[in-house]
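Hi, here's the filled form for the chain we discussed.

Project: internal
Contact: R.S.
Residues: 453
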Amino acid sequence: MKLRYKAGLMVMISGILITTSCKKTFWTDYNVNPNALAAVTPDLLLPTVEAALAYTQGGDESRFTALLTQQMFGANSQSQTYYLYGLNPGVFDNLWPDLYTSTMQNDYTLIQIADKGGYNRYGGIARIIMAYQLQVAVDLWGDLPYSQALHGNAEKAILHPTYDKALGLYDTIASLINVGTAMLQSPDAGVLVPTTQDVIYKGDEAKWIKFGHAIKGRLALHQSKGSPQMAATALQEFAQSFTSSADNAQYVWGTTETSANPWYQFYRDRPGDEDWPQSSLAASMTASNDPRYGALDLDSTDAAGTAMNYYNMINSPTELITYDEMLFAIAEATLRSGGSLVTAQSSYQAAITANMKKLGVDPGDAAVYLTAHGTLPVGTDAAIAKIASEEYVALFLNPEVWTLWRRTGSPTLVSTTGNQIPRRLLYPQSELNFNADNVPSVTLYSPTLFWDK
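And the returned structure, exactly as it came back:
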């Protein structure tokens, strides 16, 4: 399932990082490439980090979670094996370096460069990127190496890092966002500030700060089951987050084959391995006459064989957190904090409307669907289940959907093998080979994450 992202800049930056982090030897003193850069600057590194973040999520993170939540059907080859829970540690040996080396290690380097140069805008953005990637990773695996990791080839590198506890990493994520927000608000922006180098927000500090609040809202919502206080905290964070779909945190891919959306690449290179129309999600949308069906149908093409849907075109975005997700989250948090059903329903209906508008659904069709499905049932549990079942559609191909299902149990899914659906990922074989003393003992089903109650 591994796709190779061929952007030359990513390869160049990786080479620079390896070269500049090593101690000088005979070969680096005398075998010098006159075309190589002596140092990497944040304006080169930031777009590489953002591309790696989007590729990691839009690639293996998305495919594993889409199969586990039955948003996609594993029809053939590896995808069929994974759909039937044939997952072993070696399966994750590609995802782990995408996560740690391409994304988090390079982002850590960006933080060091930004801090050393006083580039506060770059330092703030890099910390929020780190917070987001760490949040997604914690929710996939639980405990992770972090505090002793990410030093790369530096002399102080710890080759066998210990694993930090997942709950403590949630605190680390919040701290990264707090520091990053302060740097983005600092009167001293620094000599270098990002503009077009920032593919996600074009250097818009206010939107990065909103993104940070959205991440913190997720952290609180994940812990809100049985905790009205956590739900209230989530609402406070969401109130400072996105106000329209224009704020969506997303990475928009290019229109060339070497900068294409990861799902587009997968369908191009592995046709027939995964199937949308046979998925549980497609079946439920058919049953409810959902007008978003075509926008999610990854298998749909025009006469020339070009993808014709929102998520599988060459330049389709990889969505990190969106406004429609926030509205669904607000509806759930309202109920968990003791708020009224009427208030929650207002956010719930706004969420469906925002999602349909984003996907290009005809307003008349959206109104018909809302009339049929826009009323929440009486009772907190039943209402939350209905909210989650609609959010399941809106979180198409986003790893957050697996967290949503594990937290709420909605929609109802039937295991494809045995009588359990996996509730966590396995640590990769590479960690078991080289860091075995520190790797927690886990299965696909236990231990569950601290918020999975």
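Let me know if anything looks off before we file it.
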